[in-house]
Every structure is written in structure tokens, then in C-alpha cells.
Known about the structure:
Layout: H1 2-33, H2 40-43, E1 48-53, H3 58-74, E2 80-85, H4 90-95, E3 103-107, E4 113-118, H5 123-134
Parallel strand pairs: 1-2
Antiparallel strand pairs: 1-3, 3-4
Helix pairs in contact: 3-5
Amino acid sequence: MTTRIIVFLALLAVLPALWIAVRARGALARRRLVGRWTEPALAGGVPTVLFFTGEHCTVCHFRQKPALERLKAERNGTLRVIELDAAREPDLARRFAVLSLPTTVVLAPDGRVGAVNYGFAPRDQLDAQLSGLISP
């Protein structure tokens, strides 16, 4: 019984450190990509959102996808959304440091990475990120 308690307490001590390490890695990946990385072939001259998803990602299909569809409709065809299965596009997912699903990458018309969102990104957040890219 005492061994179980010790193992449980050790896990409680390690989990916060692990969580901090994962968050720090995500922040580092975001800083490395935003404003420094360009993908002109993916942007194709229009603002683009790369939407990394997975077959069994419920948040992707029931929250992120509808938010992106609504945003695309509101922007009257001036936004391109590219849906990518992270498991089927591992090189691209690795390039954009996809840590969790959904992940969205906002690209300026010239292909410059403007924002990377790990986890669900609300429509308003994506809209603001896109507006920030287009505005001088």
C-alpha cells in the first residue's frame, strides 16, 4: 500500500513538469515558425488556413471544421482552407510542429506563417489573425 502511495505522489510531482515542458516546446515551435517560415506554394496568393486533423478527432470534426467553414463563408471566397490529415501528411505535420489536433496554421497570401494554433481555435481568433496579416 505504501509503495502505491509513493508511486502516486511521484506521478503527481512529475506531471506538472511534463505539462510545462510540452507547453514550452509548443511556444518554441510557434516562435520558430511565425514570421520566419514561408510556404508560398501552399498559400497560392490568398490567405490560407492549414487545418491539421485526424480521423478520430471529434473536436476537429464537430468544432474546428464548422468554425472554419463559417469563417470561409463570411470572407466570400477570399480565404482558402486546406484540410490535412496529420497521419497521412507526416512530413508536413512535422514541418509545422503539429503537437495536437486540431492545429491550424494561418498563412499570409505570400505564404508567410502568421499564426499557429495548437488545439481548437475559435472563429473570432482566426478572423483576427487573418485580419492582422492583411492589414498594414
